[in-house]
């Protein structure tokens, strides 16, 4: 399994021997950190108000979406300004299946995942011809078009038009509703799916597929000459990325209990991109930190000044980029390196 | 804003320390969510005006001796953000009531939640008709005349004054347009045959020119334009260009002179009829109205950076006065039930800046506070009111 260090883009070169020992201590440290985080995450809903639980559920939902974007941008090197569209597809899948077909919410998640994988793969095929900023522009078009498509009258029968669809909040199943309220249940539901997807993402990155994806990112020509089918891998990366984001959209719809075209504007795609960069491009755990940023920092900015909330948000963004040019991932890594040097 | 609030909270905390835990001295917490950022941020002016109005009320001693704490958050017109902010208001800030939350999709997102939590959800800033449904949603109440009310007013005027008219209607194909369309048909009642042609258009469409040409071909002599500003300007311009001499009606949503009639052309806009319910700065008829004078003083003292020519500052002042009046009517019972009961029993309340003759009335089975409007005609320069105030139920 690849350690997080290996996945970082453009980091300073670490000497081989040091890297090997760092890898070992890093991964055991990583396991401890992960264990502490999971224990903390399990205790949290019993120690806080429903509103905070709801916010943390939202953080996890966005973290899953950012994780998906990270697989595409950080691991495979393709840009997307249109992941809000896949998020919307996932959300509408959940809403339409639950409210119109009476499908239990749990089943909407794999369905949304498969649907978004197909959508992402198909979008990835024509996008193969586009590189860098041109791909960013093509995906931008996707993000801009989505809310309008959702409002179109031919689809209104399913999408509810501008009115959107209201979803009933699920109660905890298996008699768990005696101990868990709906907010706590959704939190754990999201947590389990989030951990599963994180495990999946790490395994993808550590596998042959992951190495091929990174090879394409670092040097497409070399990758092709080594026998990597770049077209298939790039389109697959788009599909997997869209699947993660679609599952996040599906969970987001269940948590918010409402979908409408105005929920999935271009601002959502930008928020996901911000979360990706803040967390660290190519560093998978960074998704959680990026999600914390996009959920909480706008509120902090608003608390400082209502009139200048946007300006303060921008200020925080610039401050983070200036202090941690490689996102939280880069900051943590350089911090660890400094500690090691001191030791 | 936050500094004033924390100052207020500090003041309250000190008084609590001195006087001991006296619950009656706590401020009344009123929660609100507005788009201060994002595509609809122009509406944020309403929130700022209300905030200024509440500050003024507090400076004058508050309501029944209690201060009002107005907590207003930003949702950027995003439904998920609205859900988060409203949950913050209800579960963290523990507000007594929500007030003037803005937008139809955003309020739809919290409609069920807020009614399940049994928190009063009063005087929403949206004209959809669905907020008047006390049987299913006993916590939620609109304020402004709904689109349905306005459509019925046009229907009534047409039936009374042009009984032989043939009506064509252009409407936006969404909940806003459909509320008008259904309301108008309801207003015509058994004379529904008068509506001879209708053309929905998509918000995503580039123009409505072809719809206007088709509607003219129906031979109608009344043309009703239910469109948001850009499309309204196109429809006005096109109908004049093709020489369609129909009496045109224009939704209140698009009556802005600068935003709609000027781009359409003043000559092309002459003779259009619309309906309003609030006074306007610059209307010669109300130049010396004491209500407007009071409002100007308020703007100068409490919201000097605000725009006096904006209809949003007038709107914010009037709706701000309505909530303060409602709290006063609740008397000593400033619980959720008390405030809701007061809101549902407003009798002939003449909120400031409403047109003369328009009064707010609510009842347990009537959650539509303003149900009257006055017609106005564009004379090529400005709107001129005419006729009586028309009320529909």
UniProtKB/TrEMBL annotation, chain A:
Keywords, comma-separated and alphabetical: Cell membrane, Membrane, Transmembrane, Transmembrane helix
Q: Where would you find the membrane-spanning parts of this chain?
A: 26-46, 52-72, 79-98, 104-125, 132-150, 184-201, 235-260, 266-295, 307-324
Q: Name one GO cellular component term.
A: plasma membrane
Superkingdom to which the source organism belongs: Bacteria
One GO MF term, please? branched-chain amino acid transmembrane transporter activity
Keyword Lipid metabolism, does the record have it?
no
Which CDD domains does this one have?
Answer: TM_PBP1_LivM_like
Please report the record's description of how this protein sits within the membrane.
Multi-pass membrane protein
Against InterPro entries, the record matches this protein to: ABC_transp_permease, LivM-like
Record flagged with keyword Repeat: no
Q: Where in the cell is the protein located? A: Cell membrane
Protein name as catalogued = Amino acid/amide ABC transporter membrane protein 2, HAAT family
Q: Which organism is it from?
A: Albimonas donghaensis
TrEMBL record, chain B:
SUPFAM superfamilies referenced in this protein's UniProt entry, alphabetically:
Periplasmic binding protein-like I (SSF53822)
Query: Which InterPro entries does the UniProt record give?
Result: Leu-bd, Peripla_BP_I
Against PANTHER family, the record matches this protein to: BLR6548 PROTEIN
**Organism name:** Albimonas donghaensis
UniProtKB keywords: Signal
Belongs to which family?
Belongs to the leucine-binding protein family.
Q: Where is the Leucine-binding protein domain?
A: 27-379
Residues making up the signal peptide according to the UniProt record: 1-24
Tell me the superkingdom of the source.
Answer: Bacteria
Name of the protein: Amino acid/amide ABC transporter substrate-binding protein, HAAT family
